[in-house]
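Q: Convert this sequence to structure tokens.
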Amino acid sequence: MMENMLKRVANDAMAMGPTVLMPKNVQFRRPIDVVNSPALSTQDKRTILAAWASDFYAVDSEPALRQIPGTPGPVSIDDVQSALQELDRRYDL
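A:
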């Protein structure tokens, strides 16, 4: 019983993913919106973008697209990687 509960909690956490870091009432349409958000720390921005880039959020049958919960639609992995590069550029990471 405990094992089933832990599996359910882990699955719920993976489904929510980076959305737990997102400010309430803010919806990111594109990865660059994360970079430009004044409500997030640099580390939270990096975490959200890294999750967005992960294969876990790849769209079925469209490996070049990613969609995290709370976003209106899929975006290209190139857009996510460009946003990560812009974050590095802005904050010298």
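The mean pLDDT is 82.
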